[in-house]
Amino acid sequence: MKDFNKSEIHNLKLANHEFLSRRIKRLRENTAARSVLFDLGIKEETIKEYFLGMSERYKDAKSVIRENALIAPVINKEGKPSSRSIYINIPGITINPISPASWAKGNAYTYYSAALGEQESIFVCPNVIDLWLIWQLVCKTALESKILFVSSSQPNKIPKDWYQREFWEQFGNIYVAGSRDHNNDKIILNLNQILRQQIRKIALQSNIESWQEFCRLNELNSEVVQKLLDKAVPVGSKYNSGLNEVSLGRFGFQPVDIAGAFHNGFLYYPVKTIENIEENFRDESGKHVSQIVTKIEIVLIRSDRTVQTASQVPAPRGTPLERRVLRLSDGTLIESPPKSSVYSTWSWDSVQKFCAGKTKTRSLGEILKDVKDFLKESAWLPFRHDYDLLTLLVPVTFAQAIFQSVPLVLVTGPPGSGKTVLGRAMVKICANAVTIGQTSAAAIARLIDETKGFVVFDDLEAIGKRKGREATHFTELVQSLKLSYNKQTSWKLWTDVSRGMSVKRLNFYGVKMINNTTGADHILGSRLLKIYTQKIPKSLQLDFNKSEEWNPVVLENLRDELHTWVFENVGLIDETYRRRFLNVADRDSEITAPLYVFAEIAEFPALREGLEKALKFQTSVPSDSTGPIDLMKEAVKRLVLSGFVSLSPTHISLEMKRLSSDNSRSSYFNENLKSESVIWIGRQLREQGLVDVNAEFSREFLFGKYLRIYPLDSEFVAKTLNHGSLTENVLRSALDFCSFCNECRYSNIDCSIRDSRLKSKKRK
Question: Is the full-model pTM beyond 0.85?
Fold first, then answer.
């Protein structure tokens, strides 16, 4: 058997020998604790085999004293005790246990009964105590070398390596022990989605309450384990006929909108296919003739690698078509025949490989690195952390059905600043993506419902310039967009005037990007994450977007890989989301949760850091109502807080440009009301009382330019610093703002000093 290193996502260090010995000694000397363990059925040889000890006395952060928990080091794949531990409450012995049963710090890890070797089978136990007890039944028998018993270090969490198919494919047989508390049901569901192998569930007898009771009744009887294995029941989609057994009577009608849905732990993806079949019939002369006939059929790919089809359930004679019931081949009740998006992005070749289990996807971190590189080479953004936000938004579009809420994004900036270019780049890399231009509100509504993917509104202002009845429908569309971030509020009854006033129930749910020049406070408000664009600096224009690396074939392969990765890791995505983010309290956390899910799974620290910067930036930008004078004051205040008490209008102009790039309306003022003029800034500094009018300004030479330096008004500085002062090590000279161009905070902004500096270098 090959040794599977990839599955060990966390490289666990070995336990400290001194600490381990001290804890083992404490348990050995505590007769009362050992008596409780013996009553549970845990034997002396098990205590020694798994290095069981007793925790020492300590005081936690809330000054609560805790002591005498049973402490078991997590046994790693080499069969050795690691530095990670599981704590178990010993009733009557443990002082202030954190949990009534067991607890552990950090992530969940795989606890092994022995070193990973040539075992034929793997047996998943509900918890470590059950593992010890079941292991005792086969200890020193022929079965011991054939079965590897494993458990999660935390019963309510699944270790990350269990989401990797390679971890399980090492074993010929996979057994999962059932339990009354259903802890292992989630494991079975996860395995159903990622494995092609047969999974067998071992259930307790109806008259036995727990594995502890079972092991106590069958002490020293190894044959009972073999009987359990023989009686294990196959589970998994492979063995599920999908034919829902129904009983006579009347029941509620609760169908599923199945296209792109997440239902019963499975993700579904509709694909339009052509099916060729042989048809036999008799011709006019009575001769047997056969011919190949073709039809179009929409099939649904389920995340357990099965292909589902829809069909009508047998109905009483004379039942009208509109009253017939539709089910998938897995038994799922559906509302209407499935539809495939015209903008479907998962190729049939990739779908076939996925269903056959022949796909080899990279880690999510590697995939997202390519996504980020593509975005950086396709569209220029003034704030680099926005690339991280958009990179993490891409996998959300492939898995959005798993989440209860998803982000909506506003891209805002002055005309010609690359909003459309960014939208096109996102369409090329996201799932089932489409750009919506100037069309009717009804057409937009139908398109959103049918696409079930990523939608870009290119220039919402232009789309919304309607008159009469169409203006009313556009307003109705905008109201629907407001609520489309959430699954529960995304449904809308839509009256389609263009189709005979027909009323349809449409689903607007999904990730969307809205491009707008003047912002969207009056449209969608706080439901949007904002991305700010700015005209690309002239110095970057020549070399930008020249790469031929991202041709259509490469992008199609990247989308296929994202589709496949998501379908292979549905369980991991769902588990991470539920564990960390399902019960968030505020809307901001609700819509950003999917981004954090993929940031955690990708294990890409730079992406996580960039995402946090981007989200923090959302609340720190100036108001859209900022005028040029207010913008100038804001710039001067920020520079004072950075250590400047003397400023040049050129420096202030650069800071205003930086702030205005945060905000489309401020940018409009900046470009149209002469706020770039150093003369205008100098005059406003005096008129607004920001400089000391009694002090004379000076001139400083900087890379071929003479800059006027104004000392700021001391009272204004004191008020800005909340009547504090700047220390010598913080105080900066007026020219300190200019550094190496590639390290400068204004490197993404048109800078006359930089241009002068480059000309000077060329002359030299």
Answer: no
